[in-house]
Amino acid sequence: MECGAAERGPQDSPETMKKAVERERNKNYYRALHTPLWVWVFFILPGHLTYALYAKGPDARHGWWLAAVAAVCIWRAYAGRLPGCEFRPYVTHYGVDQPNLSYRVVCYTAAWVDLLVPFALNALGLVLAVTTGAWLLGSLYRWLYYPLAAAIVLATALDFTPRARRSTRNEGAERAWFYVAVWTVVPAQLAAWAAWRLGGRAGLEPMPLAWLRFCVFFGVAAALLWMGIRERLPRTGRYEAAGEAASTAALLEPSPETPLDVVESGGS
Question: What is the C-alpha to C-alpha distance for residues 99 and 219, in angstroms, rounded to an integer?
Fold first, then answer.
């Protein structure tokens, strides 16, 4: 047993650690349902392709990229190397100080890029549209998407990105903030897109249409951000680890990286 396990205090015992999940293994349907989520995450990761998709519709580049992403994600999901696609949950108790796995770091870094960068560019584009009357989103994507994405990658390298940090000790809070971002970003952008489509069909002039999109985007984002911070949305309840982290040896089964999980997966 590790020294840390021998020196654990009462606050670090399994009985006092909050369980993240009750199940010991992930069902096959649960693993399968997570696969298309990661296909989408990596499909929309290249900013220039995603902007072209929404601005002009799909072309051959999107088809080839989707096929490549789907093939890799299905392969990694089958091997249990995507978050949610593991043979058994990796984080079983909140507050456990265990190393984050490389595929989790890559996947959640990509997810944060997908969430924050387009949201920031859309927000800036709407501000510029209502103040200057010019729609500059194409230029913003061209000049700012990859520098902002690189900033998030740098944040991961510096151990700042939630759910992509080197340890899973603060997973109870980081998971919640991740879902606050999901609830804030996705509906706000969908609502702004719907306002653009409906407003355009209603015959609104460019400036009133820009203001409509601006109000819908920031109104929806502000409302959902407030609800997420108040923990009133699903999966936004935060658990802050208290005291020293528990030893992984006392709480965890073998990780999804071990050959045992691959051998046992046939019985799941």
Answer: 39
The helix/strand count (H/E) of the chain reads as 10, 0
The two three-digit tokens of residue 256, written as one number:
């999804």
Last residue of a domain, one of 70, 88, 106: 88
Query: 169, 93 in Cβ contact below 8 A?
Result: no
Whole-prediction pTM value? 0.86
Domain span holding position 229: 92-249
- 1-15 pLDDT per residue, tens: 344 433 344 444 445
Task: Examine the domain organization and report whether 234 and 208 are in the same domain.
Answer: yes
The answer to whether residue 227 sits within a structural domain is yes
Q: What's at 69, amino acid-wise? A: V
**Same structural domain for residues 228 and 111?**
yes
Report the alpha-carbon distance of residue 158 to residue 155 in Å, rounded.
5
Helix 206-229 with 171-201: angle, nearest 10 deg: 160
What is the tally of structural domains in the chain?
A: 2
- 165-219 pLDDT, tens per residue? 999 999 999 999 999 999 999 999 999 999 999 998 999 999 999 999 999 999 9
Report the alpha-carbon distance of residue 126 to residue 218 in Å, rounded.
Answer: 9
Query: Angle, to 10 degrees, between the axis of helix 47-56 and the axis of helix 60-78?
Result: 130
Half-sphere exposure of 146 (CA within 13 A, CB side): 6
